[in-house]
Predict the 3D structure of the following.
Amino acid sequence: MSEAKNLINLPKNPASRDADALYGVSRWGEGLITVLDNGHIGLLHPSRPEATPTDLMSVLDNLEQRGISAPVLLRVADFIEWRIDQINDAFNEAISELTYQGSYKGVFPIKVNQQAQVIDRIVAYGQRHGFGFEVGSKAELLIAMAHNPGTESALICNGVKDEEFIQLALMSLQLGFNTFIVLESPRELELVLAVAETMKVRPQLGIRIKLTHEVSGNWAASSGDRSTFGMTIAQVMDVVDALRKRDFLDCLKLQHCHLGSQVPNIIEIRMAAQEACRFYLELMKEGAPLEFLDLGGGLGVDYTGEHRATENSTNYTLNEYCLNIVETVKYAMDEGGAPHPVIITESGRACVAQSSMLLFNVLEATQYDSTEPVSPAEDDHTLLKSMLAVEEYLTLERVSEAWNDLVYYRNEMRALLKSGQVSLRETAKAERIHLYMMSRIKTMLADSDMENEEMRAALEQTADILHGNFSLFQSLPDVWAIDQIHPIAPLHRLNEKPRRRAILSDITCDSDGKIDKFVLGDGVSNTLPVHDLRAEEDYYLGVFFVGAYQETLGDLHNLFGDTNVVTIELRDDGSFELMHEQDGDTISEVLSYVEYDPRLMVSNFKKTVERAVQAGKLSPRERREMITAFKDSINGYTYFER
Ligand code: PLP
């Protein structure tokens, strides 16, 4: 996203502008997400800059009126279309700029988001580019075969294949799909040839090589010698010899490799592409009539907007990625005297990550400070008197000293409680003074512009915990599993200065269900600036760029199921079209996933209630009410409902 476009999107309202800078929205927002002058988060139409932004709070309000409540996963179809266009256009521009003689064929790896609504959109928007699919299982192959992306697009079959998988792949070839069966191991070769001979179909084969080059980032294990997929150099040669011997070498049309997801550094992309080209040229020398060079996934998303080679960012743009690949392949092929191959990439993350966001309400806040002042008493313990005296020297200059003294005195009181020298009531007073003084310190620092690293670290330890209506394990599994960072921001009140700092906790009863890394305008922080919760108003947060991997990797921890999912299309006047809605799992559905029969549960419950009626503990009317409540719950949403 160009700097110029980001600047155009900056809010005019100075308070909203401050919020934009604080949360770094225009830094990570890719020109899709903005802070509006009314202090709400807005969605921008990526290819129609003149369109009025869509206010996310009015989307939520509108959905609520239709009976679709938070938490909700919101998909924006226009964002998928924009990314597919961008990826294809960037490759085509690089091809024409460098006078590359081959072409580009993108494929979407279905594993990155298998949801039918996403796949339907990809087929619809990808058709004009000949955008195909990569599949890694029979189920994914069936999804691809049930759509018709057109004969121009490639269908890449990776993964471990049994006879049925191979049969299906060959059937798709017979039907006119441009299917490549990628040999993952020498063992697979025999099976593929046997099925092909039985079906009397000449397969289009690919060979998956294991690059020796190792990339950095979270998916380093997908590359290098110890990666689990692909063949070693020795195995590749064995397969080539076997193909030649069996008279199938002419079927070997494609070479495949995959570096891993979210590659942070462009140099690694270039080096891997270089190595892949060396393999390609050598295989051609061996007589393989290769035409397609598939470089797999790896194109990263700059989740933090930092534009750095770190796990959650990238030091390159999409255009640089395409130029680097096309240039590397062109030079290598020219040097090796080979025709320029069709370049295939399998960018899934970069295609769909931006298109989905998780919107949820905050249920409550646990705070580690209090605005309730504590009065002195004559018989206060000396430590309590010292704590109360801290207020006299609480100034910006002496704030660290005041903080350290408070913590010291409070800890001394705790120690005295353990050794029986002070009472529980006295220690409670120490805790209350501590909480009150913390609130004074936090307010003082929030009102000042003081930059004090020590205090910043100390404050993080007393940040609020906001309890959100979502399950980390269901909706953001990579945050739990690999410390993935997604941009998070309040969806409203952004023209008010956020006076508190918080970490987030989800609705599961698991202490792992927390988020304590946040993207801000000046880098990654351990706390998120948030506003005071108001009694009569829900506070909403959004987690952005969650469209890749999160939906199907999620699990049912504490039996929180899929959230409501809505796909929208943005309209120019700032409204939206509801393209599709999918109700979140009901309790009955999640129970059946874990082998319960909800009907049997209702019937068992009825028996329990009936026994209570027989024993005179419940009236028949109470029995009816209880059974109705049980049935309503079993058919209800798994998340917190008002
Ligand atoms: N291709 C293959 C073979 C993969 O295993 C993966 C995922 O790891 C991808 C493509 C998608 O890569 P990315 O996440 O970079 O889009």
User: Anything to note?
Assistant: Residues 109, 112, 134, 158, 258, 261, 296-299, 346-349 surround pyridoxal-5'-phosphate (CB under 6 Å). The mean pLDDT is 94. The chain has 23 helices and 23 strands. The CA atoms of residues 301 and 350 lie 6 Å apart.
